[in-house]
Amino acid sequence: MKSAKIIALIFFALCIAAAGLYFQQPTAKPIKVGVLHSLTGTMASSELPLVDMLQFAFEEINAAGGLLGRKIQPIVADCQSDAAICAQQAERLITQEQVSVLFGCWTSACRKAVKPVVEKHHHLLFYPLQYEGMEQSHNIVYIGATPTQQIIPAVYWAMENLGKDFYLIGSDYVFPRTANLITNDLIASQGGKVLGERYLPLGSADMSAVIADLKKIKKAVVLNTINGDSNLHFFKALREAGISAQDMPVFSFSIAEAGFVQLPVVENQYSSWSYFQSLPGEANARFVKAFRQRFGAERVIGDPMESSYVAVKLWQQSVLESRSFAPEVIASVVLNQSLPTPGGIVAIDSASGHAWRVARIGRTRSDGQIDILWESNQLLAPNPFPLYRTRESWERMLNNGRRP
Amino acid sequence: MMRFGISARLLLASALVAILPLLALQQGLIRHFTSLMQQETTDYLRVIARHKMAQIDNLIEAQQQNTHLLAQMSATKTAVLEMARLYPKGISHPEYREARRRYLDTISTIGDFETFYDIFLISPTGEVMMTEKEEADLGSNLFTGMLRNSALSKAVSDAQNTLSTQLSEYVWYAPSNAPAAFLAAPVMEGNRLLGMLAIQISSNSVNRLTLDYSGLGDTGEIELVKRSGDDAVLVAPLRHSKEGVLQKQFLRSDRVLALHRALDGETGAAIIRQDYRNKEILAAWGYLPRAGWGVVVKIDAVEVFKPIELMRQWSWGLLLALLVLSSVIGLLIGRSIIRPVNELTRIAGKMAGGSLDKRVDVMGNDEIGDLATAFNTMANNLEGTQNTLIAERRGLEEAVRQRTAEIESINVHLVQEIAEHKTARAELLLAETVYQSSAQGIVVADQNNHILSVNPAFSFITGFSAEEVIGLKPGFNSAGYHDADFYKEMWRAIQEDGLWAGEIWDRRKNGESFSQWLTISVVRDEAGEISRFIGVFTDNTEQKQAQEKISFHANYDELTKLPNRRLFQDRLQLEIKKSNRADAQLALLFIDLDNFKEVNDSLGHEQGDQLLRETAQRLRDCVRETDTVARLGGDEFTIILPGVKTSGEVENIAQKIIQSLTFPFTLGEHFGYVSASIGITIYPQDGDSSMTLLKNADQAMYEAKHLGKNRFSYFTSAMQQASVQRLQLTNEMREALQNGQFEMYFQPIHDAASGKVTKAEALIRWHHPERGFVSPAAFIPLAEEVGLISEIGEFAFTSSVRRLQEWATQLSVPMNISVNLSPRQISGKTDFEAWIETLRKAGISTESITLEITEGSLLDESLEVQRNLRRLRDAGFGIAIDDFGTGYSSLSYLKKLDVDFLKVDQSFVRDLVTDTNDRAMVEAIIVMAHKLGIKVIAEGCETAEVLEVLMQAGCDLVQGYYYAKPMPAHDFVRYVKNNTI
To answer: Is residue B644 a contact partner of residue B581, using CB atoms and an 8 Å limit?
Structure first.
């Protein structure tokens, strides 16, 4: 009698255990996502913070239980500051690692090399940087600003607030050259003057020609599209030549907060981005605090980093809506998505796959943080091909490298 | 005394065991379905929200584009200059009126005036020089006058400052006494600002989109709001509130609503506990960046979860019924256990009282059975002991009793014999009475099967008297319906089993055959040999007829309970006769469901059946009691409408049917959507027999399907004739493909600027052996319909590739051929990979082929079409949009596919010189196309004047009789050589 009771008890316990096993969710495989940035080479110092930010965004999702019950497993590939390598890495992430989505690229060269790869595989790349526009792909979501959202508002503002004479300086590659095509048109149409225009090879340290130009001109607004380390040399040369921000205010389009603090003259630099770390609002304060808790109190967040974060959030929202990780599906679902971000609302334009964003203009304080002087009171449309000239005409100009 | 006996315990246990798991299951299922339905509905709302947002955004974007285009048109530039001159003379001056009228006429051919409310021409100094509505704003100054703080003024000054098109906020506009938004664009000549053009977007066009609740049930609503500080304010009227646009505020401090989340930029969908009316809703929301508006599409939760509520009620009822049932079963099982136990108790009681001979009936092979067996064994033992005691006494008594018994038994035997004799006689009498009065016929035959006797019922049924049949064999009146095997089997059964029963057909004396149920049995003597055959039968002819009557009633369709085809035929014939007598008309509707197959395939047959049942009900609801609704099979239904007087009556009913079938069908947890194609015939015009009428209605139905489904179509004899001809032409086309009667001609396409031939359009020609040249317009549409277009398209493609190969050696300039691609080819099974392979083998680049597709193909949103087009685009084929301007010309689609060419339709080009509307249209197309990086080809250029106009407008490529007609390939080579010299 006693043994029968024990057997019944054991049987009962086994039943419960079996039911438990049956109803328990099988531990889902993590979902792989690709991170495509340069960890070494000349772009590494710019791109590493973006990798941190992506890491931060993925950890945030995983801490909340993952996506559709699966943890996110980022696969980080090193582009070695070389566009061709980046394309190979994209191919590897897609075909071998079988990632569901790619986040990455900084330079336009890199993006243009990766574009055919994602298009061939009907895959999906989130690109976080402001760039020159003139491009559109069903397989790329462009989170950063186009010139209509960054340079054009900045030039209008500069003409109203700083002066009508300009000097254009930039690195010699597609972004500065294209941006300045637009800038020239704009200044001419508003009755301003371009007193000089010069392009330096990427990484150049020789500023003598530029300084000679500026000394001759004496007073103008400098529109700076220099990229990378050359900026340090440029600002050093300005200080050594004794050119003051009073006579020659500099408007930089490729330097964010993290870059300004490294300059010899931190204060009174003009900048135009959609996101600044100093933005008011509780959402931004929480965002900055959380990131600093994870990566250190000295860390600074700039616009491209915030864009990387927004990219992950957009992808997450699209996955949740479609309940699918398939890149082909997400590429369609992400169009028309919008979401509140630390820098305000971001909405993806269904026709162009670019983001609608707020444009802001600010000036650096001595601590490298930025006082906001102006912001657009509504979201600005992303027009990869600015409307005042036809797309064909833009393409002809870009291909020939000359004025229309 | 109440006690908790076995019976009660079993009752409780069975009720618990049956009900508890079911209760758990019910709760689980309802929870599951609720979440499923919530998910389905939010997904569905998301789709609608996305669609609405795209519509609203498109509305504004299209106006933005229109404003931009209008501002660039030469007509606008001219008008601004004219107005600057004429406006100071006063707006009633005839010259001003004339210039105004001319301008408004010109632009009305381009703009979509339904969405414009008003259009403004404004001087650089802010004077409103001209408006279409001529409201109070006409003549005021936007920079200094009353309107200087208006949205119009803001848009105009922004546009003037930035030299770009600007959209204003949506606010109250006093001159129109309505809410409005404005678009303004600068009108420039080179670098000179001539003035400004502005457009007022009609609030009606926005409201129309938000007031359309189709697909949103009885409680669905669309909220369109904009920001007002932290709060929200209404932009378009609501369904459930009459409060005014731009007045109704939604305070965030009261409650954070879905619309606040939309304005925060969120895209989402969820169940929301409270909306502004404090009702629970399911909602999807999103943000429109262009206008800065939030959109919420929602539906009340009560409506969504109604089916679940029903299910909950039903399942409670079911549970209750189960509870009762299981209680009854528990009670029965309890009793089956209790009964033997009670029996044991009773017997044991009796034995205790001394009756040791009682035994318990052992019932069942179970524990209680074992108990009973053991009990009996015990009783046996007890009884055995007692018996030995008694046996000895019985031995003594036995001797005495034997003597007495011997004497008695002799007496008893005598008495018995007398009694048996009496009984036998009584039984014989009884048997005779039964035999004589039985309603069943009885035949008795001897061992040689000769009839010995028959009873009166036999004579009554068969008509043969006893005298006529005695001595005959019983099979004498067989109807001859059964074969030898039948009788062989019958005799075998009789001999071996002694019994046979079955149905058998015999003949009455009057020759009529009849069916009977016959039983034959045998009587054996003491030796076991057969001595008699006895046949007993009943006449079941009437019963059989009744059965047939029942089967006759299978005239109704099982599934829908509607008359089936047979009954329908009868009714139709009947109604035709009635109509003849009354000299009236009748209408026959042939209804076929569109998309039924898809519903059936995707949701399963059960849901398909449900849909058919529901359809039958809806059809019945659409007609009068006297009309016949029938189901012919599958998804085909017919309706007979007798006594119709006008065709309007019939059309009303057809329209009602189409309408009623468009409402979604609730199929389980899904919704099904079908539509109906209806063919209509009228008796007597469309056929004088029921067959022709039905056949013609069927054909008319196909015509309706052909015209795009979801509609009705009449049958006319002209239609029938056309169909015969089409059949003939189809067969001839098949022959033509096999016999090489088709040939590709090529029409040169010239570069407008240089005059050089750079392209050719491949056009098919049919050399018919009897009819000579047959126009493509006469057979291409038919080929599309019957699916021959793929083969014709294949032919066009391969011929063009062959020509390109030849021309590569014959011509010194590279040539590009445009091949027409029909929508059927793109959506069909054309193997485009094979095309690419063909080109690769021929050594020809895909860029040498331009595929001309229709606007329709571009707009087709099906995955197959989009994928194929993208694939062709990616492979490097050029893409041209044929007949541009005749359909819905969507800019965003052109942008998406990255089209290379637009072909302006001939109809615009032909009258270009004389018709200013056409000219404005072509001008607008060219400006727009160039803005998108697309080249424009003009077709049908016939004169030098037209060419001149086209060149002025900036057209890139020109094709037409002015240059050359389509020509055979070898002529084309000569033509190009002449052209290049």
So the answer is: no
